[in-house]
Write a structure and sequence with these properties.
Strand content: 25-35%
Low-confidence stretches: 1-6, 12-18
Distance between the termini: 30 Å
Order of helices and strands: HEEHEHEEEEEEEEHHHH
Number of strands: 11
CATH class of the largest domain: Mainly Beta
Number of domains: 2
CATH superfamily of the largest domain: Neurotransmitter-gated ion-channel ligand-binding domain
Mean pLDDT: 83
């Protein structure tokens, strides 16, 4: 028994996070038959309010769009200056430039400012914006595992014959902000890696035959699980262990029927503690449409406590009503076999949850 119970705690940590970047479609994009190849760079200034239950997060980002064009009119009028505001808006009406929307945004993005300049004979359009982005926030191993915070930027000023995005660097914060107390990703999350991809997707235009370029940035983050381990996993695991110990160290016999009170009251207290504790932690546990690791632990702990109560009631009944052989058999099962049954059930159900 003493050797088995610690394994329950250790098995909780044997959860291998999936490789999110297996989802990236590395489709080959040909840039030979388009009018404009738009090079891109994206920098995230802030990533915050990561909400698994709601399936969204908030981001403040910067994007640089670089493309070839006739820069003669710009250099004659503005030279090497960077323009913005009314000057920029008037000039953009005279030339073609890439326009985009954020496909997975819950509302129109908030543009803080835009600038236009010419560098190395190419236009450079810079924009800083904020948006709430929806994601497929499935994290069944929560608080363990990784999450893909992606942003889908869709071109709409021209189909793939007129423009194609070309993926570039994805940066998390400015280099010169390091060491100055600025944290880009807020909350109990840590950046793992970033990547970008380009896809051509159909639209409703011309019966779905027309395709537009999509630039998709991926920021993979891992959850810092120690806070959840201390608040959730350790206490729930303690309930499971305590319930097992109560039945193990307070065996029932014909002449020791009074120990039944310890068994009954102890497991009754734990039985009501499980849902009460989950209710108290509502703000800490994501609400999802699937059974995650945390949900599994609460369900399993309730099943163990319930099983221990039923076994205690049954054993006590047989001792009270002169059928000690059956009572002894149940007590033997509780002490010798039930820990193995509980451990095997735990491992099997944990495997099913981790394979979600």
């Amino acid at each position: 028994m003493k050797k088995i119970l610690p394994l329950i705690v250790l098995l909780i940590f044997i959860i291998i996070p999936e490789n999110l970047y297996s989802k990236i479609k590395n489709s080959k994009i040909s840039y030979a038959n388009t009018d404009h190849v738009v090079d891109t760079e994206i920098l995230f200034d802030e990533i915050y309010n990561i909400d698994i239950s709601g399936g969204h997060f908030d981001a403040t980002a910067e994007i640089m769009l670089i493309w070839d064009g006739d820069v003669t009119a710009f250099t004659k009028k503005f030279g090497n200056k960077t323009i913005h505001g009314e000057k920029m808006e008037k000039f953009l009406k005279t030339v073609w430039y890439p326009e985009f929307l954020i496909a997975n945004s819950t509302a129109s993005r908030t543009t803080f400012y835009r600038t236009l300049s010419v560098e190395n004979g190419k236009f450079e359009l810079f924009e800083k914006f904020g948006s709430r982005l929806t994601i497929d926030a499935e994290m069944p191993r929560y608080p363990f595992g990784n999450l893909d915070l992606y942003m889908e930027i869709s071109a709409y000023s021209g189909n793939i014959e007129q423009m194609l995005f070309k993926p570039g660097k994805i940066k998390i914060g400015h280099n010169d902000s390091d060491g100055h107390g600025h944290v880009v990703i807020k909350g109990n999350w840590t950046h793992v890696k970033s990547a970008s991809e380009v896809q051509n997707r159909s639209s409703l235009n011309h019966g779905g035959k027309e395709k537009f370029s999509y630039l998709i940035s991926h920021v993979e983050v891992v959850h810092d699980y120690w806070d959840s381990v201390q608040k959730i996993i350790f206490p729930v695991t303690a309930i499971i262990i305590l319930s097992m110990l109560i039945n193990f160290y307070f065996p029932l016999e014909r002449d020791r029927a009074t120990t039944a009170y310890w068994r009954f009251y102890g497991n009754w207290a734990l039985f009501f503690a499980v849902p009460a504790y989950k209710f108290a932690l509502q703000g800490e546990i994501p609400t999802t449409h699937y059974i995650g690791l945390i949900d599994f632990l609460f369900i399993f702990s309730l099943l163990i406590v319930t099983a221990n109560l039923i076994l205690a009631f049954t054993s006590h009944y047989y001792f009270i009503y002169d059928n000690p052989k059956k009572g002894i058999a149940i007590e033997s099962f509780i002490r010798k076999r039930f820990p193995f049954v509980a451990l095997i059930s735990f491992v099997g159900l944990l495997f099913l949850v981790s394979r979600h």
